[in-house]
Amino acid sequence: MKFLVVVLALAVAVSADIDYETKRRALQNPDLYDGDMAGINGPFDAERNAIPGQFYRWPGAKVPYEIDSSLQSNTGFIQKAFQNYHQTTCVRFVPRTNERDYIRIFAGQGCYSHVGKTGGQQPVSLGNGCAFVGTAIHELGHALGFYHEQNRSDRDDYLTIYINNIQKGMWIAVLLLYVWWIDSKVSAWRLGRMGSNPDSVNERHVCNINTKCAQMFHIRK
């Protein structure tokens, strides 16, 4: 079976219509693992970069969702993120009817999501500084069960990390994950905390990560 693997290398690109610092801080919540992943208390190791276990998967690749009233006036970028998944994957985001497990997209404090299905109402925050298609794709990817691509155990085969350019306190962003924490049978979405992301560009806008290969390709499992 063929799975599409996409590197979102510019998922959170710098835009002229928003202050860069606001955008950077939106992805750097100090209370969350690596800035935007909720429910994780420490570093995990992974080979394919997806959380293991059937419990964390969305049945039938369908993800029911609700969009909170705090975002009702600005849902275009979310719908475009849904369309991206629908056009390139088997994942389908569907409006919630009476499903017990679903994601609730709201304008919280910055950008964040749990990793994989957690059960019940599951928050996905797209607050101030997060109203971009790439950012929405990124956080929805976490909700589907994927960690950050630059933490994969085979990361160094594809990326060059410039350690000296990493901001102080942000080294956790490039730690390699342990293989036993990953389901190796799941193809990985490449959730790029690369390009113009807080972890990959420091306060002097110096690049910390470069790709060594093409950003879009197919793999077979």
From TrEMBL:
Cofactor binding mode and count: Binds 1 zinc ion per subunit.
Signal sequence range: 1-16
Domain Peptidase M12A: 49-221
Enzyme Commission identifier(s): 3.4.24.-
Domain of life of the organism encoding this protein: Eukaryota
Cofactor: Zn(2+)
Active site location: E139
Protein residues bound to Zn(2+): H138, H142, H148
Pfam families, per database record: Astacin
GO BP, one annotated term: proteolysis
UniProt keyword annotations, A-Z: Hydrolase, Metal-binding, Metalloprotease, Protease, Signal, Zinc
GO terms, molecular function: metalloendopeptidase activity; zinc ion binding
Subunit structure: Monomer.
Family annotation (PANTHER family): DISCOIDIN, CUB, EGF, LAMININ , AND ZINC METALLOPROTEASE DOMAIN CONTAINING, METALLOENDOPEPTIDASE
Biological function: Zinc metalloprotease. Provoques deadhesion of endothelial cells from cell cultures, and also degradation of fibronectin, fibrinogen and gelatin in vitro. Its role in the venom is not fully understood but it might act as a spreading factor that facilitates diffusion of other venom toxins. Alternatively, it might be involved in the proteolytic processing of other venom toxins or it might play a role in extra-oral digestion of prey.
Name under which the protein is recorded: Metalloendopeptidase
